Amino acid sequence: MPAIKSIKRFGVIVFLLKRNHYPSLDVLLDTLERRDLKSSERSLRRLFQELRDEFGIFVRYHATHKGYFIDWQESSDIFSLEDLLELGQINQLIIEYLRNTAVHDDYIYLESRTDLEGIDYLVPLMKAIKDRKVVEFSHHKYQTEQHSQQTVQPYFLKEFERRWYLVGIRMRDGKRRVYGLDRIHDLRVSNESFRKQPHIHIEDYSKSVGVHVIDTEVHSVELRFSRLLGHYIRSLPIHASQTLLYEDDVYMTFRLECTLSYELFNLIMKYGAEVQVLGPQTLVNWVHEEHEKSVRLYEND
Hints:
By secondary structure, the protein is α+β, with helices and mostly antiparallel strands. It has helices at 2-19, 25-34, 41-55, 78-99, 122-131, 203-206, 227-235, 262-270, 281-299; strands at residues 59-62, 67-70, 133-141, 146-160, 163-170, 176-180, 184-193, 219-226, 243-247, 251-258, 275-279.
């Protein structure tokens, strides 16, 4: 897919420019070639232009060091875009290596990667978000198992559990909606521009676990895990705000500063009796009621 090639090229360049000390043109071209992304000097300069025009990343040449660098003062949104690009290219490099290495079948089991579906829409959606252009696409909704035509004002993209989501305003009713890229088909970026609504902020999603924000109020969520599971939770935090409050020979208790979401609720339910919600009371009640429903299912058998 051409868009994946573009993501990988952008990712390799941003990665090198940030971590290497003024890489030269030859170094950049050689690195791209070793990643099977061979480019000419002309195409590389065109890539610099695309990074500037489409993503606001300004690549400059430093005459003293005789190499290239990112102009941090001029560039915008570099950190979130860099994470997105690096994630895309690293995932692709791993998958392509494993698929192209015949001997791996004897010692590596590679699950079906449905999370890559729709990834070719990342670049056009990023451009539409930056240019504030309305997008149109067909969307498959799991609840109805039907496809519907959607016209959306795209606001931002978020990754959660190896899947990408588009957050935007549905034009027909003005409501905020979340669309999984793996269920989007026939994307078209229109020429119609839109003005962003001031009450929708990407920061609301940085405070949330997942992509569905119930409300924007931040809660102190305290979760007590069995010590065994606690080791896994500590090594792979549920949320960026996670801190360890207390541990002993039996339990580990963590605190998250985040909004309440369906994804947080589902994650807690997934761990069953290995986790207890200590607060807030709203979440305690929510989880308690759901467990009671589960018990009633078995009592009726």
